[in-house]
Amino acid sequence: MDMQVAKKKLGLKERYAVMTRGLDWVPSYQKMEDIYPYMSYEGIKIHDWDKWEDPFRLTMDAYWKYQAEKERKLYAVLDAFNQNNGHLNVTDARYINTVKLFVSGISPLEYVAHRGFAHAGRQFPGAGPRVACLMQSLDEIRHAQTQVHAVANYNKYYNGMHDFHHAHDRVWFLSVPKSFFDDAITAGPFEFMVSIGFSFEYVLTNLLFVPFVSGAAYNGDMGTMTFGFSAQSDEARHMTLGLEVIKFILEQDPDNLPIVQRWIDKWTWRGYRVLTLVAMMMDYMLPKRTMSWKEAWEIYFEENGGALFKDLARYGITMPKCAEQIALEKDHLSHQAWSTFYNYAAAANFHTWVPDEDEMAWLSAKYPDSYDKYYRPRMEYWREQAAKGNRFYNKTLPMLCQTCQIPMVFTEPGDPTKICYREVDYKESKYHFCSDHCKAIFEHEPEKYVQAWLPVHQIYQGNCFPEGTDPTVEGFDPLAAVLDYYHFESGRDNLDFEGSEDQKNFDAWRGMATKNV
Amino acid sequence: MSTVFIALQTNEDTRPIVEAIVQDNPDAIVNEAPAMVKIDADGKLVIRRETIEELIGRSYDLQELQINLITMSGNLDQTDDEMTLYWNA
Amino acid sequence: MHIDLRTVTIKPLRHTFDNIARRLGADKPATRYQEGTLDMQQTANFHYRPTWDPDHQIYDASRTAIKMADWYAFKDPRQFYYGAYTMARAKQQDTAEANFDFVENRNLADTLPADVRATVLELLVPLRHVAWGSNMNNASICAYSYGTAFSQPGIYQAMDQLGIAQYLTRVGLLLGGVESLEVAKTSWMEGDAWQGLRRYVEDCMVIKDPVELFVAQNVALDGLLYPLVYETIVDDVLSAKGGTPVAMLTQFMTDWFTETKRWTDATMKTAAAESDENKAILAKWVIQWRDRAAAALLPVARIALNERTDALVAEVVQQFDARLIKSGVPL
């Protein structure tokens, strides 16, 4: 053997091929369908897994090297943030409520994504997508953990996030993001990839991260900004995976098109409904606004998503139909959402407030067709009432949509004065929906969606009180019992920002940091 | 053609990368924000290893971009020498 | 000189999250491992059953026969959360890279005696497929086990094994070029010496119980394979024949096994200490998979060990038993 002959240096693509798919083999001691049991029940047809194109070609050595560098940078910033009381540098204490919403609503989803991609990364018979999914699984536990680590410092000084894991599994509005990811991970592996890999990561993630993270930067929250940008750098890999998955499935068999189109329609809508929380955060919760929800939707969905769907047109994919309704809602979504939380502030783990005069002027300017006409009068009325000592807290429970689980507060497409109700009779029961799209999703898979753990139903059935509660005793206060079950401390975690412990502490601490007292 | 873009964190590492991108894609539009720089191009954007290497005076692996990458849009094709973002339509 | 660095001192309302404080028994500062691990997995009020496994919840402790009162009794002694994990691996990767560079730049591969080179190509390179199988099996462990304390190291182990498969690929490329990978794959698929091992790996891929899979893959197979191949064959037998450069190329695996067995041992110890039922189940699995793994490894070890095979494999099995007994598994 003459080893002096120069060994051919492999290019990135060839090298990556021997480092991944070259490792795989066709089993003979066990059957393919026993090793990969979930590959056919969704109806997707794959003929040749080798046609899969790997987007980023990272081998583990490079992965460890680059990711460790990101981690070192991130934790250096977090340490500095903690040592210097970085939380006192945020614009004002109202900002911290976005952090509460994020850690209880979004961070647990990163964890589900971690487990979901481990599942998908085990189940695909193709070596290429399997490795890409497992790398994403590893990234997602990173995101879950760095978020918890970044928020840990806020938790030391502010209320509302002290038991966020417990809250995520129980609290009424947190069932919206939870059921979204439960829906994805309980779907088949292909649908999971389209739901999370494509619809969420590719189409919607920019709407979650870019506005949220630049919002954090704009409001002086260096810790959140750093984990956000650092996490987002992994997203570029994930987005590319999501896009490659779609192209791959569509190229494999023409029969896949209608299935994939239905999934895209479903998951764009499901994801958009979850982003309701982001919409109100952008328009109401950031003391310094970066851009309005409407502007973000126009840039990141209409413009960007438009380019994407134009590109996918050659496979026969069309823009999801729900985009039309979303366009009609974009002048209303955030206002309706904030109004809802203003109402239910007694049962939430963050504070709400009426926007001040400057903020209302900003909303009028950003929403010239809707804010002054429909929403400003309502908020001005609330402000007057609060000034008279009549801050209003709604203590009756709302009807929830069976699919997205958001209270039925959205209005008819094209008529912002009329609440939208839809219903379906299924096996002796009546089910309620916030929209035609949520109704259609239910009708396609009723056996799945009848299982939904709807918080309001559960409360009425007595399943959301601490163990040993007797609701029949004289003077029983159901809301107090539910808050106990949520582990919320009434008076500290909930109610209006005005007069809250967060507000008082922040003012006192900031005073210590900036004045000689 | 539709717009493709790449967004990078603003820092010392990315300054020459942005410069290289502008050199290789003269029609690209650079949007600077305090923490992020976003570069838009019509239909296609190419990032070339050699151009970056000339500017930084050392060898560069395009995978190093991962460290400072924030987000991107378009189909991706990566080789040892080039990273290309493009739309087909 | 005395520098008085002043920052504002304010008293925190609490030191950690409530779920951590409940587990620590007091509100005191927690480590990043604790905050990134404890109760990370959702436990209640799941909305839908998996369409791919309607008999179970999304996360379901009943996927395994092992029973734990609290799945967070498990603790990774390395305290790996993502940041600690990647930084540890990046450091090892630096060493590995330096070792590969050293061997490559000095053409040390060309100085290897012919029989050492042949043994490496025949024995080490097909093992990349075994590592790939472990990648899949640990993905299963991560996906289907219960509680982050148990599942989290699964993804790290899965990616480590992918890394090992890739290092072995580089060894093949360095010593024999791309063709050596093809030859090794043919051995793996058809060579008599490898069929027992391949059957073992494929049989693991259909194990549904994540803890049994942990035992079969991480405890039994790796517990015999790594001491036998890397500690005995590479570091001892081949080095004595002038194969030290090979030991440099596989240093990652040697160090890695020393580190990860602390985790597998701690995991076995915790599960066994929980109950006599667990002890009995674990012992049954360990014996069953140990015997199969030892038998499958014999013909593979023979490639390098010839007539010393039986004795050295028996020695490795003996050490393995001692390890497991120490962890409280009655063998």
From TrEMBL, chain A:
The keyword Transcription does not apply. Residues 411-453 form the YHS domain. Keywords: Monooxygenase, Oxidoreductase. GO terms for molecular function: monooxygenase activity. CDD domains: AAMH_A. Pfam families: Phenol_Hydrox, YHS. This is YHS domain-containing protein.
From TrEMBL, chain B:
GO terms for molecular function: monooxygenase activity. The keyword Oxidoreductase applies. Keywords: Monooxygenase, Oxidoreductase. Gene3D superfamilies: Monooxygenase component MmoB/DmpM. SUPFAM superfamilies: Monooxygenase (hydroxylase) regulatory protein (SSF56029). Belongs to the TmoD/XamoD family. This is Monooxygenase. It comes from Denitromonas halophila.
From TrEMBL, chain C:
It comes from the Bacteria. It holds the Pfam family Phenol_Hydrox. GO terms for molecular function: oxidoreductase activity, acting on paired donors, with incorporation or reduction of molecular oxygen, NAD(P)H as one donor, and incorporation of one atom of oxygen. The keyword Phosphoprotein does not apply. SUPFAM superfamilies: Ferritin-like. Keywords: Monooxygenase, Oxidoreductase. Transmembrane segments: none annotated. InterPro entries: Ferritin-like_SF (IPR009078), MP_mOase_hydro (IPR012078), Phenol_Hydrox (IPR003430), RNR-like (IPR012348). This is Phenol hydroxylase. It comes from Denitromonas halophila.
